[in-house]
Every structure is written in C-alpha cells, then in structure tokens.
Amino acid sequence: MSRNRVAQQVVSQPSGLSRRHFLRGLGVAVALPALESLVRPAFGAQTAASTLATTATGAPLRTAFVYFPNGAIPAAWWPTGEETSFTLGKTMAPLASFQDKINVLRGLDHNNAFGGKDGGGDHARANGVFLTGVRLKKSATDIQAGISIDQVLAREIGQLTRFPSLELSCDYNRKSGACDSGYSCAYQYNLSWSGPKTPMTPEANPRLVFERLFGTGSHGERAENFKRRQAEQRSVLDYVMEDARGMEKRLGASDTRKLDQYLTGIRDIESRIERAEQFGKTADPDLDTPAGIPASYEEHVQLMYDMMILAFQTDSTRIATMLLAHDGSNRSFADIGVSEGHHDLSHHQNRQAWIEKVAAIDLWYAKQFSKFLAKLESVKDVDGNSLLHNSQIVYGGGNADGNRHTHTNLPIVLAGAAGGTTKTGRFVNFRSKPATNLFLSMADRLGVTKLDRFGDSTGRLSQL
Asked: Is this prediction's pTM over 0.90?
C-alpha cells in the first residue's frame, strides 16, 4: 500500500474505549475503523485517571513538538493584522487553509539560550534549551541540561499507552564529542531529555520506527511475530529466574546482593513485558513497512510525519517530538533552487539575495508542516472529531533571527484545539514571556495540573 494512504488508516484499540467490550464485541483487534458508539461517556463514567490526556469526549489528547533549524526571516514569517483578523506572512502562507485551526504565538522567549558569559554556541543552546528551558553547561564531556517537557508529560501519562513517548528525527544523531563552540553534540542533536545528563536518542529510520510500533513482517504477519517474540522472551525469563533462584542457597552475602540486583533487573523486564501485554494485540495497519531512509529529504520528512500520525491513530503514544534538522544544519535545498547551505545563508548580513533564499527554505518547511496538518485533519478520531482537533502541536525553533542568533520572539505556532480547550484562529502577542509558560498551559490541558513550574517559567499563558 502506498504511503499516501496513511492518513486514511484508523487502527483499533484507542484509549477512551472499553478494551474488554472492544475485543469481545468485535473479536478482531486490528485495522478497524474508529467507532463513535463505543466511546466512553464524556462525563460521570470516567475515573480521575482516565481523564488524564483525554478530551471532554473521552478521546485521546495528543501532544507533539516539531523543531525546525536556524530560525526564520522575521519580516517574512510574522503575520500582519490583529489577533482574530490577520494575514499570515509569506513564508507561513502554506498554513492559510488551517488558519482557523492554529495560533501564531508572538513574544515567547528562551533567555537561557543567550550566550552571556558562555559566549558562542547559540545553535547548541537553541536546540538544548527549546524543550528544557534551562541553562546548559558549556562542555563537550560534562553534559548538564534538564528534563524536557515531553518527558515530564510522559512520566505522568505514559502509562496510558504502549509507548510513553516517541522521539523522531530527520537528521543523523550524535551524542558525544564537541560541536558548536565547545558544547557537546548531545545538546545540538537531541530535543528530548529524560534527565540533565540523558538525552532521548531520536530515531531517524522510518522502518525502525514502524517496526517498533507494529512489529516486523508484512501485514498479517506482525501479530504472529509479536506473539512469538513474547513467548520467547517469557520462556527465557522463566528459565533464568528458575536457574537464579536455585543458586541463592549456595552464595555468600556479597554474591547474594549481586544476584538480588540481577533478579531485580529481570523483574523489571518482566513488568515491562506484562505492561505491553496489557494493551492487547499490537495494531497491524494495512501498510507496507517503509524501506528505510529515503534519498529525498522531503520524502524522509513526510514519512516521519506519517509515523507520528500512525502512532497517534493507534494510541501507541500520546507524546512525540520531531527534530526536522539540528540547529546549525547546513543542508542545501537544490530541489527549490538553493544550492548553498542553510546555516551559511542564515548569516546573510542583510544581503537581499541570501535573505530570499533563507525565506524559500522557511517556506519549504512550512509546506511540509501544512501537509502534516492536512493528514491529521483528514483522520476522524473515535469521537467524530479530527486528530488535529484532538491534538496540541508546537511547530517552532529555538533561534529567532538566525542572522543575529536571537532567542526572543521565537517563531512558534501552536496547531490544534486540544480537544476544544484551546481557542484557535488567532495571532497572539505575549509581549516577552518565557516559552516555558506555554508548556505549563499545555500540561494543564493534559490534566497534569500539579506542575507548578518548569524551566524558567513564570506562570501560565492565560490568553490561550
């Protein structure tokens, strides 16, 4: 099946349904359409836990963060007009058909991305600060960042889905060595962090993403392969545990402690397998497994967007990040007549020809995002709304003006209505607020209301 049918595939077992009713009533748990009649009542029947990361209708609420590199040409990016009556800038024109479904957010800053006494390294800081909001330690070896907002959310709602979060990239990955002005490459090539020293390595190969979500093999084979792997894992664990328990009587105190550590690790694996099993059969979309990383960057970007859509459709996860390219990327765009590197051009020093080429790249990225939104809008969710309506998706970058390396008034769009809790179709000027305030507001919509502060936040964005 061709990739352009991804948006038409709706696979079974979304949260917000009674799984027992779903499996018993329909028998088969794969490749089924969304059925509104099986959505749990919006009020009364839901428990406090079930309202986490759900809309008022009981449908899943998805959250994603999409990052584009090297800032934007501000004059071409920003809309003109008033809050509810505005015209998108020329590099944002591809989003015009979704203007009533997005918010363009002006005046959001990441002050911790400025150099100060640390000097150069704005690209590393732009990437590393974008979802953490903290000051990075300038070092190639002693990494010190912070947990990113996606991982904060995943810790709270990740138990609701097979995968707590999904980290994607359309770039190669580096976790060690020195990159921008002495900063570790880990800062520049990762968006998601599970802790100050632990980046969540994103996957750039669409085949590996697909197989992680749905298993190996062709359509119809994946469920059997998954069950076979589970049986093999279970038998190996049973054998290891039985053998290990038989040794306990013959060990000294020190070795007993070591064995106990070992068994604790085995039990952790068992619990993870059991957790995966509680979600029932793995979804098996009627799609061919992607062949790998395409030669075409546009095809690669669209495939990775498609992987995110499939993960959201199947409720495999409700939290995702996508690094389109690392900040400082010097990719050229020959397909649109730009043979020079993106990063080189971003330091245009007011050369008009260079400015126009950077604007063309900004436009290209906006076109790819628009295609993604169109697919989200075309998929009907379990409550009859679109996936886009039941999502909140940040599209933006950690540099504002790439020529000057500024980190105030960042180019940020918030797409989707978060299930109707966010007013859309607006151009909102927050007049210099931390970008982390946006993240707190997004957390509230997921039901993660106990998060008082994050990064350098000063409060919520009440205008949303």
From this structure: no
